[in-house]
Amino acid sequence: MNKNVLRSMSYGVYVVTTAGEGNQNGCTANSAMQITSDPATVAVSINHNNYTNELISKNGVFAVSILGENSDPSIIGNFGFKSGKDSDKFEGISCETVAGVPVISDSVGYVVCKVIGKMETSSHTVFLGEIVEGDVLKKDTPMTYAYYHNVIKGKSPKNAPTYIEENASEEKKPSSAFKCDICGYIYEGEEVPADYRCPVCGMDASHFVKVQ
Fold first, then answer.
1. Fold type of domain 169-212
2. What percent of the chain is predicted at pLDDT more than 70?
3. What per-residue confidence (pLDDT) applies to 157?
4. For burial by CB atoms within 10 Å, which of 44, 68, 156, 208 has the most?
5. For residue 142, with 0-12 CB atoms within 10 Å meaning exposed, 13-18 middle and 19 or more buried, which class applies?
């Protein structure tokens, strides 16, 4: 099967968060969709290996923050390329708490949901949530995965539902470029400045490897 056909399907870029007694966490997701309008329900797909999956099951609530084209790309890096088991993903990120769950302030808007069902696949849990709160935070164009991939030049985390391992022979590489070994962001230039930090995951210049 040619998995590249899946890239023709439409995806957004979201941060799914949860919180409960003594815990909070979140992860970047690109598989979220509205299921019904009355009662308003949505579904999100979260990898079994993500700590967020464990906490949503435990807490029974989650929020979906909808990132926009002008949202800070480092939000994607914080929630997509770090583990909440050994780092605070919310550090340096502006949030507000709604119905007990943190939502991202620098987003188009959010919905907060209570879990009303779930479905297990071999690698992901699809959580079905009934919306209990929601609001629009700012006027911006919701970010699509295509925009993230083609304009921001970011890659999908390996736990993302849309992750497809890149075939090196198919990737278009500039004549001189460096790739972030954490998130896959490509820096084009003769060399990476010593004080440079990846705009997606925030890693320093030492994490950039020359593309051969």
1. Rubrerythrin, domain 2 (2.20.28)
2. 86
3. 54
4. 44
5. middle
